[in-house]
Amino acid sequence: MAKKISPTDIYKLLPKKNCGECGVPTCMAFAFKIVEGKANPSQCPYLSEEAKDALLTKTAPPVVKVEIGTGRNKVVIGGEKVAFRHEEKFYNEALFAVEISDRMSSEEIIEKIKEAEEFRIERMGQTLKLNMFAVKSVSGNAEKFVETLKIVKQHTNLPLILCSTTPYSLMKALEFVGEDKPLICPVTSMNVNQMAVLAKKFKTPVAVHGSNLEEVKTLITRLNQFGVNEILIIPPGQNLMDEISSLTIIRRGAVEKKIKTLGYPTLVFPNLIKVNNGNFKDYWEVMASAAFLLRYGGIIILSNIVKWAVLPLMLLRQAIYIDPRIPLQIKPGLYVIGSPDENSPVMMTTNYSLTYHIVSNDLKIQGISTYLLVVDTGGLSVNTSVAGNKINPDSVARLIKENRIEEKVKHKKIIIPGRAAKLGGEIEDVSGWEVLVGPFDSREIKGFLEKKWLRQ
Amino acid sequence: MSSIPISFEKYEGEIKEVEIGATKTEGGTRSYSVTVGGDKYLPLYSFEGINPNPPRIAHEVYCYHAPLPGSLFNFFGDLVDNPVEWSREAVNKFKAEMVNLRLTDAFSIRNETFKKEISNVIEEVLQAVKVPLLITGVMDIIEMDDYRKNNEILTKSAEICEGEKCLIGPVYTNAFQEIGKACLEKKHPVLAKTNMDVNQALKLNTSLLNLGLTNKEIIMDVTTGALGYGIEYTFSTLERVKIRALRGDKILQSPSIIFSSESWLARELQEEDKLETEKTGITFEVLTAITGIMAGANISSSLHPEAAKLINEFVNNFFNEPKQFITVEEWLKTR
Ligand code: SF4
């Protein structure tokens, strides 16, 4: 486990003026904020340069944060502090990059970009999408590479990864798109000096590729000597097990053993897995991607962007990067669905963001107008909150009172989720409202209302 | 310069091995038994050491009223109403190493005629297939009465399967006695279900250990949800339980299970006529299982045979025949 820095360590380096200009009343409070990652040392105007440097090194995440692209489409990877999400959280979501080759026709390229950009899913208040394009030079011809990039650039503003073994091709490419701050790769023992010069000149991040972790460290040391510090590591390995091992050693080595040369985010290629069987090839790319997502894969290059493959990966990424300390939840309270009147039903659900989104969506689709009470379960679903005794009948009663439901409808009936059936009696007792046990599934509410509500 | 670490922790504990299925020499009629657990390292930490038993897969067979989405009803066809034939098909056609007979439906358990029939089905399945069996009751407790139904049907199952070492459950923190005792008496391992809370798992295991069972007779289900529906809890709870057990907490030193089958409850998979729905569902199920396995699950209970096959390939890739990766340089030469 990683050792955490203590607020007193930070406090020692602060000016101890307790002037409050940093936004909190005391230096000690500021120290706590820094430790929690909620404040930045530069917010204190009285820090000496040395103290600031010392603080920045002390508080820097063990995995360097790398930015790729510029402006609105900039992406951030790295900045991680732990190896297990339950120890804190994972900070910057893994990124999906879509592969493009300079051997593809311009029609193919345009089509692929279009497909990738159109792939968007709204879920639990977030937009899930593909983040970048990885353009590779297969032709080995610098002009062809630049031509391809011209087409790409015409059709997308997403950040780019430029892949070529020839530094000359990369230089030509950078002369064209260098200002967009693409990631360039691979840096190998063969080309490290030239790549370092390019990275320096165009201020672009690079990804290193060695046959083992020792070689990776040597390459990184070399890049650092050139002053290049925006680096990603391609985990060495000849198969998935090897790569997962490398990824684990890189992350835990950086976080727990404080090995600076391993403290960088990673770039992985699930599409490099060799599979003979045609049908399973697609599945293998997804399976390897999932394994990478779960074990510290940073940027993940995909060749296949069909929905059945990408949707599940997107959901997995969203799940792994949810802050385990604060589940995605919405504010408890009264939500008005449709245009309810005094005869409309009153319903109850929990404040787990996903539960709420599903239920409110289902209600809208079925054209139901209702007052929906959202109970605070600490962001748990109906199922888990019932199992863990997280639905408090008193708070249901309080919600009814606080939101003056009695003045809004002329009945005293509340429909609770089928899965919360066993709480019905208690809710009736403390609220004085009659409880109707609804269906297990919110898609069945319409049928339920027809039977149990409209007939009354 | 510091060298590359080859180990991060010295673990004091290890997960006990649980055996499912008893052969003739052990007093049963299974043609082989399956051993799970025995982990000494975190999953896929091959640089630290290799765990003795790879994760295993059980194919699910529903004993009536299978809660399947439309696309799966189409896939299984007539098998859906015929658990015996379904078991046979699972083993012969889909090469199931274990079968999980799910007496999942509260309605059929409540119903007296069905109850009798379920007993018959279990007996017939024991005859029809010779692989190790899991027998699971209502997993998703809705009302207090469900506990009673589970007690009834599962203690009955423990009797019918005496000597066969079936994995039987679920038992819960507030409903473990009857089933636990029946399993102890009839020598079956027990499936212990808790919800996303390490302390709950500790509590239930302690209760089971107090009954006289050992860690070699407990499989833990600490999962909460499948992909898109709480898998983040599933992942982290599995990880925390495994780490804690390896660090020496004796009470938690039993293997874990994940129900990848739960993936099919996802909203995204309920469209009946969409061609891609089935393929998407298979991927949901595979990713759910992978998430569980990488966090420490020792068994995946899976529904779609294609998903089971892929999960099996995934596991094999780590334990038997790893698929090679082409190098980045080679990739830069293809297409
Ligand atoms: S601004 Fe600086 S000196 Fe003033 S209270 Fe904050 S940390 Fe202390």
Task: Describe the model.
The complex is a heterodimer of chains A (456) and B (335). With 456 residues, chain A is an alpha/beta fold. Chain A is built from 17 helices and 17 strands. Chain A has helices at 7-13, 27-35, 49-59, 106-118, 142-155, 167-177, 192-202, 213-225, 240-255, 278-294, 307-320, 353-365, 382-387, 393-402, 405-408, 424-431, 445-452; strands spanning 65-68, 75-78, 95-101, 120-123, 126-129, 132-136, 160-163, 183-187, 206-209, 231-234, 267-268, 299-302, 333-337, 346-350, 370-375, 413-416, 434-437. The mean pLDDT of chain A is 92. By secondary structure, chain B is α/β, with parallel strands linked by helices. Chain B has a single domain, classed as Dihydropteroate synthase-like (TIM Barrel, Alpha-Beta Barrel). Chain B has helices at residues 70-76, 83-92, 106-110, 112-128, 144-160, 177-186, 198-211, 231-246, 275-295, 305-319, 328-331; strands spanning 17-20, 34-37, 56-62, 98-102, 133-136, 167-171, 190-193, 218-221, 257-259, 299-302. In chain B, the strands form two sheets. Chain B has an eight-stranded parallel β-sheet with strand order 8-7-6-5-4-3-10-9. Chain B has a two-stranded antiparallel ribbon with strand order 1-2. Chain B is globular. Chain B starts with 16 loop residues before the first strand and ends with a helix. Chains A and B meet through helix 8, helix 9, helix 10, helix 11 and helix 13 of A and helix 8, helix 9, helix 10 and helix 11 of B. The complex binds iron/sulfur cluster (SF4). Iron/sulfur cluster binds at residues 14-15, 17-22, 26-27, 30, 44, 46 of chain A. Iron/sulfur cluster is lined by residues 14-15, 17-22, 26-27, 30, 44, 46 of chain A.
Question: Key features?
Answer:
heterodimer, A: about 450 residues, alpha/beta, eight-stranded parallel beta sheet, globular, B: about 325 residues, TIM Barrel, two-stranded antiparallel sheet, 10 strands, about 40% helix, binds iron/sulfur cluster
